[in-house]
Design goal:
Blueprint (H helix, E strand, L loop, with lengths): L10 H8 L12 E2 H9 L1 H9 L6 E2 H18 L5 H20 L3 E2 L4 H18 L6 E10 L8 E9 L5 E7 L8 H14 L3 E7 L6 E2 L8 E2 L3 H25 L32
Parallel strand pairs: 1-5, 2-3, 6-7
Antiparallel strand pairs: 4-5, 7-8, 7-9
Helix pairs in contact: 2-3, 2-7, 4-5, 4-6, 5-6, 7-8
């Protein structure tokens, strides 16, 4: 099947409703919470990153977050080590490894030594205050969701899966304390709930001089409740979003600009690496 067979009439959408895999042309092997969230923020940014595979600079805040996650996971798997030793593991192994993996794309938002010392404090705070009260069953559990009507799976990793009915956990690093679920976390949490079939407890670890670790125990609105009805609605939403993405590829292809709807988002353009040649900013 060729794109030209159905681009003029929008037949890809009709085919999606009648025979799900007939008309699927999107050249991706999988979707994820990150890619779907990016599509919701701005279709053109999704096109640049996932279709055209254009690399973008990586800020040190992102590297810091990844390294903090890695060190916490290490301590969760090696409980005989103290929070201070986990902080040392972050500074000596996890952060340098993340910096090396990022390579030339890394952009330092803060002084390198400040990132190192701040991250070590964050790791020690979480491992000292939060980790001892968790009942960890699995770290970075990989899941692969087969959504009815979507020819490719949704892949993801849950930070911490707890035993029994205890909520699963996703850790967010943040500049300031958050006491409620932020809007751009919701879809990620819903997708994780389809995989885990349980609530999601959002843990916020701040980058302040004295880091704070906030969970639903301290801020009840950080708990994202689970229901079978909402899980089914999430599956339906993923199907609709997947076919919207497929339709844009079918009608516009890889090279014609997809809608630059990030210009109406509250912060999408400020974080976009492709703003310089975006039609939405032409003449400004």
């Amino acid at each position: 099947m060729r794109i030209e067979d159905f681009t003029s009439s929008g037949a890809g959408i009709v085919a999606a409703a009648s025979a799900p895999e007939d008309g699927w042309v999107l050249p991706l092997e999988h979707l994820s919470a990150s890619s779907l969230n990016l599509f919701l923020r701005c279709a053109r940014s999704f096109q640049q990153q996932y279709i055209l595979k254009h690399e973008q600079p990586v800020g040190s805040d992102l590297v810091l977050g990844s390294a903090v996650h890695g060190a916490i996971a290490w301590n969760a798997l090696n409980k005989d080590y103290t929070p201070d030793e986990a902080a040392g593991y972050f500074a000596e192994f996890e952060l340098p490894s993340q910096v090396e993996d990022t390579g030339d794309r890394l952009r330092w938002d803060d002084d390198q030594e400040l990132v190192r010392t701040r991250g070590a404090l964050m790791v020690r705070t979480y491992c000292e205050q939060i980790l001892p009260r968790l009942e960890v069953a699995e770290i970075e559990r990989r899941f692969e969701l087969d959504i009815p009507g979507v020819p490719i799976p949704v892949l993801g990793f849950v930070d911490i899966t707890q035993t029994g009915t205890r909520p699963s956990i996703d850790i967010k690093t943040s500049k300031d304390r958050e006491s409620r679920i932020l809007p751009h976390w919701l879809l990620q949490g819903k997708i994780y709930q389809v995989a885990e079939r349980k609530p999601i407890d959002w843990h916020v670890l701040t980058k302040q001089v004295t880091p704070q670790a906030v969970t639903s125990l301290e801020a009840p609105m950080l708990l994202q409740a689970y229901s079978d009805a909402q899980a089914e609605r999430t599956r339906q939403l993923i199907e609709k979003l997947a076919w919207e993405i497929n339709h844009l590829y079918a009608t516009l292809g890889p090279d014609e600009d997809w809608p630059w709807n990030g210009i109406v988002h509250t912060w999408a353009c400020g974080r976009c690496a492709w703003k310089g040649d975006c039609p939405g900013w032409e003449g400004t």
